[in-house]
Amino acid sequence: MRKIRARTEPASAAEIEKPDEQWREELTPQQYGVLRQGHTERAFTGEYVDRHDDGCYRCAGCGAELFRSGAKFESGTGWPSFYEPALAQAVELRPDHSLFMRRTEVVCRRCGGHLGHVFGDGPAPTGDRYCINSCSLSFEPATTSGPGGDGPS
Ligand code: FE
């Protein structure tokens, strides 16, 4: 299994900083536990495990675009799995040696929210498996606007 290399530079300051109390108010208790406390939702319980329609997955904490449906694959793990982030700079990778394991944590770069972990046993083209908690994400279906519809502004 390929090793994922986390960046060794110090964690950068998140663009969005909020007092803990505010996060607690804005997020559901489950989202707060995952995004702000690094918990993991139970396998096969998340709402996006089996979702495969076109769209993008945004951070449930700050709305940053993190993953796209095109990179989502069926991992059988019980968590939404992607072979790459929407943009490399959308996420930050940090070494995580908790629970007596060597893992690489995936964090939203914009708000510092915990998303999940990345492993080196994913499919082509990257070989990466971003194993992400459903509740840290917010799915936005692709718009099917025809001519004259809402374009990017
Ligand atoms: Fe975020």
What does this structure look like?
The protein is mostly beta strands and 153 residues long. It has one domain: Peptide methionine sulfoxide reductase (Metal Binding Protein, Guanine Nucleotide Exchange Factor, Chain A), CATH 2.170.150.20. The protein contains two helices and nine strands, in the order H-H-E-E-E-E-E-E-E-E-E. The protein has helices at residues 20-26, 29-36; strands at 55-59, 65-68, 72-73, 81-82, 91-96, 103-108, 114-119, 129-132, 137-141. The strands form two sheets. A six-stranded antiparallel β-sheet has the order 3-4-8-7-6-5. Strands 2-1-9 form a three-stranded antiparallel β-sheet, with no helix packed on it. Strand 3 and strand 4 (81-82) form a beta hairpin. The longest helix has 8 residues, at 29-36. It is globular. It starts with 19 loop residues before the first helix and ends in a 12-residue tail after the last strand. The model has no long low-confidence stretch (mean pLDDT 91). The site of fe (iii) ion (FE) has 8 residues, from loops.
